[in-house]
Design goal:
The complex is a heterodimer of chains A (300) and B (267). Chain A has helices at residues 11-25, 28-49, 69-77, 93-102, 145-155, 187-190, 193-202, 208-220, 226-235, 254-259, 262-265, and strands at residues 59-63, 82-87, 113-117, 130-136, 156-166, 238-247, 250-251, 267-276. With 300 residues, chain A is an alpha/beta fold. Chain A has a domain at 28-175 and 221-272: Rossmann fold (3-Layer(aba) Sandwich). In chain A, helix 4 links the parallel strand 2 (82-87) and strand 3. Chain B has one domain: 3-Layer(aba) Sandwich (Rossmann fold). Chain B has helices at 19-38, 58-67, 82-91, 134-144, 176-179, 182-191, 197-209, 215-224, 250-253; strands at 48-52, 71-76, 102-106, 119-125, 145-155, 227-235, 239-240, 257-264. Chain B has a seven-stranded mixed β-sheet, sandwiched between helices. In chain B, helix 4 links the parallel strand 4 (119-125) and strand 5 (145-155). In chain B, helix 1 (19-38) crosses helix 2 and helix 4 packs across helix 8. The radius of gyration of chain B is 18 Å and the shape is globular. Classes of the chains: A alpha/beta (300), B alpha/beta (267). Strand 7 of chain A pairs antiparallel with strand 6 of chain B.
Chain lengths: 300, 267
């Protein structure tokens, strides 16, 4: 990313930023690339910093790396010794490099970056081979969250850490991922899946492959809530140590609050840190929505 | 943050009645109420407005000055001390007398001394975590609202969130209310009450008065009181989770408060 440092007042740099922003508004590729190459790694670094964790020199895995842009950003900017991006779909190295070149982000993929295709429930990696695992906007697509989390736990060293960002939760405003077809918030909670499919396939003006792909992805969403995710983490042997909800103001059709919990409707995503719990600790999964009675409250 | 139906929370010491507390409520909290309503195209100008849980009354003075309703009535189970409010307001150069149209009334736990359908807007700030019978009080709020009226609730902090005990000055890490029993918490505050033991007792009473309602519990109460919920904003922040709370629902640990709008279903 080019930026001028010549002016004492800094206005050329601001002007460059403004120009870039205006340009990107009309360039979805540039915005997508920048959000994942710069924005997401910056958010991970900030969150980990709050727990005094620095990725420099560590072995890091990205579970659900998708197109690999974010993994490239982490590998180049956060200094891990090794970064392995896992995804059920093969990540296109040549395609990634071409996109990075087009955006002026990298001339070659770095040595410390690898991509490995995995299955829906298994990571092809040896036990305790990573210090940090992160996953970004992937877990809403995972068919069996507890199994994948158990795999992550297996490949983490005992004092390792998992950073998990999930956005958007299914029951939140943009939980369908289909905002290109349905701009209205919570549309998927206000109509049936058949109605959604009907609307999407009726309009053949758009990219038909993309329509089919997004509809398929929508149907495969696991629809877990924040408390379901917690239950899966506990089942897989993790303790959650830091938590930050992603929320914003939402307008609700009256029937939404009659059918769904406000805590689900208002929580669009989560960032959390989890650590492998001590092996001797056996935990019951949490029951979503359960309010422990005072006598059941945990003791110090 | 101490306006409260369940417990009288007039400021009890000079340090508490400083400029920061006043500005926090007169400008900031009042501004948040006015802005949240404006975001839904609701202007308080010329309207009949009620506050449920007016506490020390600073927010009411702030809302009245900022939004110019026709009438604003602050209700609290412990009547707001108007003389004290005006002393405070004079010291802070905010007002010399109570504006025409602003009044305070003592209410019962679940009954507002007001006519049916007599208000256009009701707001409530940091109160519903102390209300003993939220559903019954909400039914009465519904009763006093006019057709087409609106209720804005801000609730902070939820009991199961980091600072839900209201005792953050004694337990800055938070969550003490979920990992220690009540007697131990009270004993700990009394052992080190700080410079003002009387204030410490007030805070203990506030802790005791918490009804332990959750966000979803508030939703249940609103629906039972024949409200529909039309706008929602969670108040959250990053929290460190103590190992003892691993099994406690994240949807409660992570939600420290809420702002919402609700309207009677009959309208």
């Amino acid at each position: 990313m080019s930026s001028s440092t010549r002016s004492a007042r800094g206005w050329p740099r601001r002007a460059a930023r403004t120009a870039r922003r205006l340009f990107e508004e009309n360039d979805p590729e540039a915005r997508w690339f920048r959000d994942h190459f710069e924005g997401a790694p910056r958010e991970i670094a900030a969150f980990l910093q709050g727990a005094d964790i620095d990725l420099r020199g560590l072995r890091v895995a990205d579970v659900g790396c998708g197109d690999g842009i974010m993994a490239l950003g982490v590998a180049l900017n956060l200094g891990p010794a090794q970064l392995v991006g896992f995804d059920v779909n093969p990540t296109d190295r040549d395609g990634l490099l071409a996109r990075a070149r087009a955006q002026g982000a990298a001339k070659a993929l770095p040595e410390n970056l690898q991509f490995v295709q995995c299955s829906a429930t298994e990571l092809p990696a040896t036990d305790e081979s990573f210090d940090v695992v992160y996953t970004w906007s992937a877990f809403e697509h995972v068919g069996e969250p507890a199994r994948v989390l158990a795999e992550i736990r297996r490949v983490l060293v005992p004092n390792g850490v998992l950073f998990l960002q999930l956005w958007p939760f299914f029951l939140s405003e943009r939980g369908s991922h289909l905002w290109d077809w349905f701009p209205q918030p919570f549309h998927h909670l206000l109509s049936s899946d058949d109605e959604i499919e009907e609307v999407m396939t009726r309009d053949r003006n758009g990219d038909d492959f993309m329509t089919r792909y997004m509809l398929d992805e929508y149907k495969k969403l696991n629809r877990i809530s924040l408390d379901d995710l917690q239950a899966a983490l506990l089942e897989a042997g993790f303790d959650i140590v830091r938590l930050e909800l992603i929320t914003h103001l939402v307008a609700l059709e009256p029937e939404l609050a009659r059918r769904h919990r406000l805590s689900d409707l208002g929580t669009s995503g989560v960032k959390l840190l989890a650590r492998p719990s001590k092996p001797s600790v056996v935990r019951e999964p949490v029951v979503a929505g359960e309010v422990p009675e005072p006598e059941e409250r945990a003791q110090p | 943050m101490t306006s409260s139906v369940g417990v009288g929370t007039q400021p009890v010491r000079e340090g508490r009645e400083g400029p920061a507390w006043f500005r926090e409520h007169y400008e900031k909290a009042a501004g948040e109420i006015v802005d949240f309503l404006r975001g839904d195209a609701i202007d308080l100008r010329g309207k009949d407005v009620a506050d449920v849980g007016s506490g020390d009354g600073i927010i009411d003075l702030g809302v009245f000055v900022q939004a110019e309703p026709r009438r604003l009535v602050g209700f609290d189970v412990e009547a707001t001390d108007v003389a004290r409010l005006l002393d405070y307001a004079r010291r802070e150069d905010a007002a010399v007398q109570l504006p025409q149209g602003l009044e305070f009334r003592r209410s019962e736990q679940t009954r507002l001394p007001a006519e049916d359908a007599s208000f256009d807007v009701v707001f409530s700030w940091s109160t519903f975590e102390h209300v003993a019978e939220p559903t019954d009080l909400l039914r009465d709020v519904n009763r006093v609202l006019r057709p087409g009226g609106v209720l804005m609730i801000q609730l902070w902090p939820f009991f199961h969130s980091q600072h839900g005990s209201h005792l953050w000055q004694y337990f800055p890490d938070g969550f003490v209310q979920l990992v220690e029993d009540d007697a131990a918490i009270e004993a700990s505050v009394r052992a080190n009450p700080g410079p003002d033991p009387e204030w410490a007792e007030r805070l203990i009473a506030e802790f005791r008065s918490c009804n332990r309602i959750t966000l979803d519990g508030l939703q249940t109460a609103l629906l039972a009181a024949d409200f529909r919920i039309s706008k929602l904003e969670l108040i959250t922040g990053g929290v460190h989770i103590p190992p003892a709370l691993s099994r406690f629902p994240l949807s409660q640990l992570g939600v420290s408060g809420v702002k919402l709008l609700a309207t009677p279903t009959g309208t």
